[in-house]
Structure formats: structure tokens, C-alpha cells
Design brief:
Elements (H helix, E strand, L loop, with lengths): L1 H35 L9 E2 L2 E2 L3 E5 L18 E2 L10 E2 L29 H12 L1 H4 L12 H4 L4 E5 L3 E6 L5 E5 L14 E7 L2 E7 L19 E10 L2 E9 L8 E9 L13 H9 L10 E3 L4 E3 L9 H7 L1
Parallel strand pairs: 8-9
Antiparallel strand pairs: 1-2, 3-6, 3-13, 4-5, 6-7, 7-8, 9-10, 10-11, 11-12, 12-13, 14-15
Length: 327
């Protein structure tokens, strides 16, 4: 009898240990999935009956440099080379020391239909001037807010947090953010860098109207720009739980002859410990923005084993000084 009793205890202990092991394994898997944001308990498939876009996402393409199809270039700012052809242009002095690190990779582009942005004749001249004066004009260099849709495909992650009546997007660059309102709200009292986003559902596709822009943002590093009449219509659709199909249609009769559209996938960041890290780039732009106002300049000379640079800053005369900050 005693032997049977001991055997029974051993059987119970073994069974309990097996159950405990299964519970521990299940818990550890769930915790691992929760940490990485891949588990069902961490990420409900739907919220209020609609697809759940919550998570941290990032584009993986070359739209950051230029939305249109383009060949590889030696730098974002170039000058005439030995021969008078565009393809023989070389990196300009401010970026020549960067070598290949300052180059622009080629791309098939993300502009749909004919692949070209339909500028008016006058607006195309401004775009071409922007290319030549990229260092002075690109708002990104000054760490200004990126605007929409540019914030969606810059090489930094962004987080989507979704509820039933609001969807919040937080971007790593310059702590910029916006809220997509799925309920009725008033328009902002003034135009803004990131626009005013009002969303609605068309089936399982999130459609967002973005208006109330100022005219201070660009679409990319290639000088593509807009006016304060810009109207962006975005469409978010889940291709898989970890891939969003993102489309944006731009309308701006002041700058473009017709509406035009970009399209690209956005990918969920799958690292276990992924999170947004502050990138307060304004601290890194202070010398660029205000260094020419110092009584005694700090950055005046730099040299390496192969280069020597003398830096001479200048202040644009009169109102041009304030206009430079506005661009």
C-alpha cells in the first residue's frame, strides 16, 4: 500500500511538473511576443471592427532622396565637372569630403502613372532652383518639421497608436507628430507644418484628408515642393499584419497641373526591443542656422590628412536674412 501511495505521489508530481513546464513555456512565448509586438495578445487584429495599424513602422526605399525615378548621383549638391554634361557633374565643395557617403542612390521612383511630378512651367523653374540651392533651402537641413507625406518615408521609424476615434502618429525626427481625427473636430486656426488630418474608413482602408498646410515643407531632398494650397489624401491598407500599403495623392493647383500619386509599402519593425528614440536634430542644426550671427565664429577652419577647408559665413542682406529662415 505504501509503495502504491508513493507511486501515486510521484505520478502527481510528474504531471504537475509537466503542466508547470507547459505554462512556463506558454508564458515565456507570450512575453516574448508581447515584447516584440508580434503576439495576438499584444496586438489585437481589429479595433472597433477595423484593422489595427498600431505598431512601429518604417519605409524601405529611396523616396527620401527623390520621389521620382533617378540615377545615382555623386551628391545632393553638385557642380560642373570637366565636361558640360549632367552625368559628369561632381560633388560640390561643401560635401566633396564625404565621398561615396554623400552620394545619392538611384531609384525606380514611387510616383505612379507616368512617374513624373506634373509641375507648372513656373513651378518647375523653382524646383530646379531648389536643386541648385539645396543646402540653403531644404527644410530638413534646418531640422524643421518634415510635413506630410515626407514624414512617412524618411529613414526613421514612426509609431502608430490607434483607438476607435483617434489615431496618433509619432515620428522620431524632431519629435514631430500628428493626430488623425476619426470624429468631428474643428479646423486649426492657422496653417501648420504637419497639416490637419481627418480620417474615415472605406471598408478596411483608412482614408485621411490632410489640409491646412503652410508652404514651408518639401517632399524630398530633390527640391520637390508645394504651396499652402496642398491637399493630401492618404490611404492605408494592410497587405499583411506586418505590411501597410501606403498611397498618397497630392493636389495643389498653384504648383501642379493635375493631381499625382505616390505608393509604397511600409514595414513593421520586428525587433524585440524596438522603440522610438529621441532625435532632437535642432541641437545639431544650431551652428548651421545661427553660426553666422556669432560675434566670434566658432567654425572657421577644418583639415584632415587629405583636405583643408576655410569656412567663411555670411549673413544675407536685409529682408533676405529673414526669408532664408522662412524657406
Amino acid at each position: 500500500m505504501r509503495i502504491r501511495f508513493i507511486s501515486s505521489l510521484i505520478s502527481v508530481a510528474v504531471a504537475a511538473a509537466a503542466v508547470a513546464a507547459l505554462v512556463t513555456l506558454s508564458t515565456s512565448r507570450t512575453q516574448g511576443q508581447t515584447a516584440s509586438g508580434t503576439g495576438a495578445s499584444a496586438r489585437p487584429a481589429r479595433i472597433g471592427g477595423k484593422p489595427n495599424f498600431s505598431g512601429i513602422w518604417q519605409a524601405n526605399n529611396e523616396a527620401y532622396w527623390d520621389l521620382e525615378a533617378h540615377e545615382a548621383r555623386p551628391a545632393a549638391v553638385v557642380q560642373k565637372g570637366i565636361y558640360p554634361y549632367d552625368y559628369t557633374r561632381v560633388a560640390a565643395p561643401p560635401v566633396v569630403a564625404l565621398g561615396a557617403a554623400g552620394g545619392v542612390p538611384g531609384s525606380l521612383g514611387v510616383v505612379q502613372d507616368d512617374g513624373r511630378i506634373p509641375y507648372t512651367i513656373d513651378a518647375l523653374k523653382i524646383r530646379n532652383e531648389n536643386v541648385e540651392h539645396w543646402i540653403d533651402r531644404d527644410p530638413e537641413i534646418k531640422c524643421y518639421l518634415p510635413g506630410i507625406p515626407r514624414a512617412m518615408y524618411m529613414p526613421y521609424p514612426f509609431a502608430i497608436t490607434q483607438s476607435t476615434n483617434k489615431i496618433h502618429l509619432a515620428y522620431e525626427i524632431s519629435n514631430s507628430a500628428r493626430t488623425i481625427h476619426l470624429d468631428k473636430v474643428e479646423s486649426p486656426p492657422a496653417d501648420t507644418w504637419m497639416g490637419h488630418s481627418v480620417g474615415r474608413w472605406e471598408g478596411d482602408t483608412l482614408v485621411v484628408d490632410v489640409t491646412n498646410f503652410n508652404d514651408k515643407t518639401w517632399f524630398d531632398r530633390a527640391g520637390n515642393f508645394h504651396s499652402d494650397a496642398l491637399h493630401v489624401v492618404e490611404r492605408f491598407s494592410l497587405l499583411t499584419p506586418d505590411v501597410i500599403q501606403y498611397d498618397a495623392t497630392m493636389t495643389d493647383p498653384t504648383v501642379f497641373t493635375r493631381p499625382w500619386r505616390i505608393a509604397m509599402p511600409l514595414y513593421r519593425r520586428m525587433e524585440r526591443n524596438i522603440q522610438l528614440i529621441e532625435y532632437q536634430c535642432i541641437e545639431f542644426a544650431e551652428e548651421f542656422l545661427y553660426g553666422n550671427l556669432r560675434r566670434t565664429p566658432i567654425v572657421t577652419h577644418w583639415e584632415s590628412d587629405t583636405f583643408s577647408f576655410d569656412v567663411k559665413r555670411k549673413v544675407p542682406p536685409g529682408d533676405k536674412f529673414y526669408e532664408w529662415f522662412r524657406k
